[in-house]
Amino acid sequence: MELLSIRNIEKYYGSKSSLTKAIDDLSFEVQSGEFTAIMGASGSGKTTLLNCISTIDRVTAGHILLEGEDITALKGRELGAFRRDKLGFIFQDFNLLDTLTAYENIALALTIQRVSAGEIEKRVKEVAEQLQITDVLEKYPYQMSGGQKQRVASARAIVTRPKLVLADEPTGALDSKSAGLLLERFDYLNRECGATIMMVTHDSYTASYSGRVLFIKDGRLFDELRRGDDSRKQFFDRIISVVALLGGEQ
Description:
With about 250 residues, the protein is an alpha/beta fold. It has eight helices and ten strands. The strands form two sheets. Strands 6-7-8-3-9-10 form a six-stranded mixed β-sheet, sandwiched between helices. It is globular, with a radius of gyration of 18 Å.
């Protein structure tokens, strides 16, 4: 079932005398339950695309539909409700609140949604088990490793059971072991929990955990790969081949 539809979107920055086109007539669809990676060189438009989908930024032209609803037309309370109820966002730098424990950071999103205390406890414990962070729930961010903080941030993003989880370079600040653990959890959430994930990354290894990779160049769709029945190693090799055409690993 189609969850997200990107229809001929364009995004410009600057003024008439100095205009930059970050996204150039881009269109594609994402099905419910897909794990999609977005790759491209620095300045290709991949982060701008994620920001437009998350409504952090506004498109200049075109439409973005989530479950058939045109989110480019949302304003005020409707926009706030959309961000609160239908999106989960995972930032590269975690964005955890230092004065709250891991449990409280995760529970905050549910508190804003006015979920009951009993249900909050149930959901936080459930997602903590899925992401293997039960042992850090009572710790503050300064007491956690980078990998633990990113998994807490991921738990915060999915605990509300959003329609779409957006991740911007989620492994960018992690060492290779922590990155591998996080990606295995993403794979679990996608396969076992049916989470729809869209992840921006510059790294082919990270992208190989997805089921589909969209390559963006100069704001346009350059190529697309689907994993199909390939092993992760086979998919990684195919990704590397396209990255070479894009100008090499960034």
